[in-house]
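Training component of the fellowship. As part of building independent skills, the fellow (R.M.) carried out the full modelling exercise for a liganded target. The chosen ligand was zinc ion. The inputs are recorded below so that the supervisory panel can assess the work.
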Amino acid sequence: MKFCFTVDWEDWYHGLRLPIEETKKLERRIKIGHYKLLELLSKHKIKATFFLLGESMEEFPELVQEIKEEGHELACHTYSHPFVIETSPEQFRGEIRRCMELIKPFQNGYEGFRAPYFSINQSCLWALDILKEEGFIYDSSIFPGNTFRSGIIGFDKNIHTLPNGMLEFPISNFRIAKFDFGVGGAYFRTLPYKYFKYRLSNLLKQRPGVFYFHPWEFDHKQPYMKGVQARAVHTHYHNLHKTEQKIKKLFSDFEFAPLKEILFAQHAVAGN
Ligand SMILES: [Zn+2]
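Fellow's submitted model of the complex:
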């Protein structure tokens, strides 16, 4: 069954929810994970989907060019990495427009979106209508289950058409005891690889899947920030030194395709 490797392409501090003034002073380290990732994807002949963050694109347009030249899909991850629920509809529209302006020099037109922190939930479904109005074809932001920061319990886990006509590729997950484990990120770094592979193989027998990743997960020497919420510290820093070894196994064990390829193939089969 089809499987997609997606990258939320941002610098190491973007997921830590630090004040903007503080992040301006921080060291930029995106190149560390960026080059490791492009190297491994190329070695395994994998084409991925990159959800690009505007702030990092503005600072490193040459890296976006490299992603494009490698033949990966370019998509949008907002400009400054806000929690969608904490933005007004107009702020959200501004975030995606600013991000897409930065993608334009590299790609004609655009298709896909992923919200920072998977933060489109029941309280801000209006964001999906703004995406539709702005010309997006698909969204891959909704975690169908419970996470500590977001999620919609009971949301359809299959690729499906939203009421507004856009396509949704929900974040893949599986249940262990009473917890929903996402396919990627800290969940992947925490679980033993063999067990993760077993659960993922079972999941892919049921439906196409999506794996999520960040370049900074290859950067195990990134600074340790004080004053960040304890749970966020755990999910951000846990087992970073094991990432590379595990990703290599994942790339060897599964076959991947860009998200839009899987989405449109599946959509055609479903005929909806
Ligand atoms: Zn992100």
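The panel noted the following from the submitted structure. The pocket of zinc ion is lined by residues 8, 10, 14-15, 77, 81, 116 (CB under 6 Å). The first helix runs from residue 20 to 23.
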